Every structure is written in C-alpha cells, then in structure tokens.
Amino acid sequence: MEESELHEVLQHTMANVNGKAYRTMVNQLFSQITSPVMDYTYVIDLHKGNFNFNSARLQPYVYGTITRIFKKHGAVRLQTPLLLPRNRKLYEGSEPSCLMDHSGMLVTLPYDLRIAFARFVARNNITHFKRWSIERVFRPRKLDRAHPRELLECSFDVIVPVTNSLLPDAETIFTISEIIQEFSVLQVPHCYHSV
Fold first, then answer.
1. Which of 129, 127, 114 is nearest to 162 (CA)?
2. Which PANTHER family does the protein's record reference (predicted)?
C-alpha cells in the first residue's frame, strides 16, 4: 500500500471514533510491547544530576511553611483533575504534553495549574473561594519517547464576583510577601516574582 493510500485510510478511520476500525486501531496501538531498552531510557534523564539530598530534606519544610500561610488566609487545598481533553486554543504559544487514553481520546497533562481550576470554577458556578495548590506540571521534551519534564508549581487563587475592590489583589500580594519574608533566599535584590 502506498503512503498516500495509507494516509487516506487512516484519515477515514480517525473520522469515525465510534466505528469498529477505530477501536481496532486504538487496541493495536495499546497492544505494543515496550522493549527493555525503551523502558530503561524513558526516564533516564528525568532526575539525572538533579537529586540533592539536602533539597529533598528541605522540601517538606518549604511545603509546610507555604501551606501554613495559605491556610492562615482561609485558602483550601483543591486538586483538580490531572488530565483534560486536548484543546489547542487554551495553550496558544505553548504545547502541553499530550497523551491518548484507552478509548483513543487525546488528553493533556497539566501545563499549569490555572486551566483545570478555571474549568472547575466555571462548571460549578463558584463565586467566592480561596484555594491553594502545589502540584506537578509538565512540559514535553523535544526527544521522542522521553518522559515529559516535570516542574513543581504553586498556585494561590482568590475567586470573587466582579468588583471594583482591589482587596483580593492586595491579599494575594500580601500573601506572596509573607512567603518571601519566610525565606531569606527570596529576599535578594533584583529577584523578580510573578503574580
């Protein structure tokens, strides 16, 4: 079969996600066997050279300090779904790590902590809420067959109805200021923090 014919057959198969051919194709994709080499190399560079015992011991202290400050401001920890349906419009200019679930649906790992939370707020008609979250976010690697790069992201969100008041903004800035005061390393001149 020529490449153009194969491309046409694949397009036809992909167009009918409820069809038997589509289910067969997805089953075949998920029936692949992972070689021992691929198994070993998939995460080989994930933590290479990055592990530091002192950092690992310090992380619970940092986490505890930050969460104590968030709780003091009345924020609640809220985890949103890990996977979201792929939507290119949400991440214009950035490409999230994309996966396929067992049914063939394309889903993304979190690129940031905002999108899933914004969906949660909109779908539940939430008008007043303070939440905090410290979770992993992911960036795709340029290499094929490599684990996405993992980053730890911290989020503090204040949801209020549309208002002219600057109190929610002021509280957010004050909360960040409290966190900076707790960690002398963040008090360095010319150190910028994004809000």
1. 127
2. HISTIDINE--TRNA LIGASE, HISTIDYL-TRNA SYNTHETASE
Alpha-helical regions (H) of 79-161:
114-123
pLDDT at 191: 63
The pLDDT assigned to 109 comes to 95
Residues of the chain with pLDDT under 50: none
Residue/partner pairs of 78-83 with CB below 8 Å, 24 or more apart: 78/117, 78/120, 78/131, 78/132, 78/133, 79/133, 79/135, 80/113, 80/116, 80/117, 80/119, 80/120, 80/133, 81/116, 82/109, 82/110, 83/107, 83/108, 83/109
Determine the topology of domain 51-82+110-187 in CATH: BirA Bifunctional Protein; domain 2 (3.30.930)
pLDDT tens profile 60-103:
999 999 999 999 999 999 989 999 999 878 777 788 999 999 88
Compute the C-alpha angle 127/159/185, nearest 5°.
Answer: 165
pTM: 0.80
* Residues in the chain, overall count: 195
Q: Are 126 and 159 in contact (CB under 8 A)?
A: yes
